[in-house]
């Protein structure tokens, strides 16, 4: 079922579907065991209302720090109203999921209830040190493959603070930087980095992305508003030591001196110091890269999805919903055969 969305004026790449759409017939035909609202904001409100009409249990997952983004974009007056709206919406769900313990604590501080962690996994075969490629390293360093190669992967948007990396290059003139990704601030960033050892690749996918990760030496990620930070885990799986702010979802996965370096999220000079430590000590950088890969191997998608299915199956089997759900839902719940929720419909 496709739905038409409109571009959000403050963030054009975000498309919103009005909350008045009707999906009652589709939901009734599909007969879900549970409805999962992913990053609910506008369409999620319609999903919540229509799930309640069935009735079936509702889980909602929080993935984007909209209040934090509003503040980064200079719309501080919207921060508290956004928190209030999201709290009101999420607290109507029977279960709330978020991608990290850091985000869980933040949501609980803002009054969100029934919050559990549903992390993200990484494909350890797609992102692996063996994808290191001499040709890609030549390309990303403009023909200087022996130079230290720093890497950023992600959207090019204000909240990512990619501009902080310009100061890193000024402090480390021997280093090269590859910026993988695209977004609304790319023109400004290309102007800012003009004349430096920087390569903009645009979006990369498939083997190109895997090789770009594995061909670098250090992953430098300045963003402090990540609820998880998928790219950080992908870099770790690729065998890179990571330098990230001590803020947001990456804090769950980056351990100082084991697989990366944590820096002061409000101090760009601390980011410089963190990257410099790895550039000046390649042996230490390689040790952290080995630790990063070892940690990433524990974060498989199978393990992460098993945890999600356990949470949803427990919700379906809750006495609250067995008592008031439609008969077909109660019958389905009784037929579950194992802890993974085999046959779960959502």
Distance between the termini: 14 Å
CATH class of the largest domain: Alpha Beta
The succession of helices and strands, N to C, reads: EEHEHEHHEHEHEHEHEHEHEEHHHHH
CATH architecture verdict of the largest domain: 3-Layer(aba) Sandwich
CATH topology of the largest domain, by name, is: Rossmann fold
Report the principal-axis shape. globular
Put simply, the count of helices is 15
- Spans of at least 5 consecutive residues whose pLDDT stays below 50 are 323-342
Number of domains: 2
The residue fraction in helices comes out at 40-55%
How large is the share of residues in beta strands?
A: 5-15%
The SS-based structural class is: alpha/beta
Cα Rg: 22 Å
The CATH superfamily label of the largest domain reads Glycogen Phosphorylase B
Strand order of the largest sheet: 9-8-7-10-11-12
Biggest sheet overview: 6 strands, parallel
Output mean pLDDT. Answer: 87
Write down how many β-strands occur, each being a DSSP E stretch of 2 or more residues.
12
């Amino acid at each position: 079922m496709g739905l038409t969305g409109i571009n959000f004026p403050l963030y054009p790449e975000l498309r919103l579907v009005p909350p008045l759409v009707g999906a009652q017939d589709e939901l009734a035909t599909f007969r879900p065991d549970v409805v999962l609202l992913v990053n609910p904001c506008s369409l999620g409100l319609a999903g919540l209302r229509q799930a309640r009409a069935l009735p079936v249990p509702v889980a909602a997952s929080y993935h984007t720090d909209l209040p934090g983004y509003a503040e980064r974009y200079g719309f501080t007056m919207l921060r508290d109203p956004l928190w209030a709206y999201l709290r009101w919406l999420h607290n109507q769900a029977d279960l709330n999921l978020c991608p990290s313990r850091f985000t869980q604590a933040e949501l609980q501080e803002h009054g969100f209830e029934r919050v559990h962690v549903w992390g993200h996994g990484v494909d350890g075969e797609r992102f692996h040190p063996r994808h290191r490629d001499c040709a890609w390293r030549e390309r990303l360093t403009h023909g200087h493959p022996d130079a230290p190669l720093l890497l950023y992967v992600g959207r090019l948007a204000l909240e990512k603070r990619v501009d902080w990396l310009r100061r890193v290059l000024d402090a480390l003139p021997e280093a090269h930087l590859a910026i993988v990704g695209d977004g609304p601030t790319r023109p400004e960033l290309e102007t800012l980095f003009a004349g430096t050892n920087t390569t903009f690749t645009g979006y990369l996918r498939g083997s190109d992305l895997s090789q770009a990760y594995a061909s670098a030496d250090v992953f430098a990620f300045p963003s402090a508003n990540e609820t998880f930070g998928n790219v950080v885990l992908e870099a770790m799986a690729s065998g890179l030591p990571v330098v990230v702010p001590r803020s947001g979802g990456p804090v769950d996965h980056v351990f100082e001196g084991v697989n990366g370096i944590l820096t002061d999220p409000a101090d760009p000079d601390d980011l410089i110091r963190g990257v410099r430590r790895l550039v000046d000590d390649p042996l230490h950088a390689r040790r952290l890269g080995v630790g990063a890969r070892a940690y990433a191997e524990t974060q498989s998608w199978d393990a992460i999805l098993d945890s999600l299915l356990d949470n949803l199956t427990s919700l379906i089997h809750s006495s609250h919903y067995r008592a008031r759900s439609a008969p077909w839902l109660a019958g389905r719940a009784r037929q579950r055969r194992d802890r993974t929720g085999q046959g779960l419909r959502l």
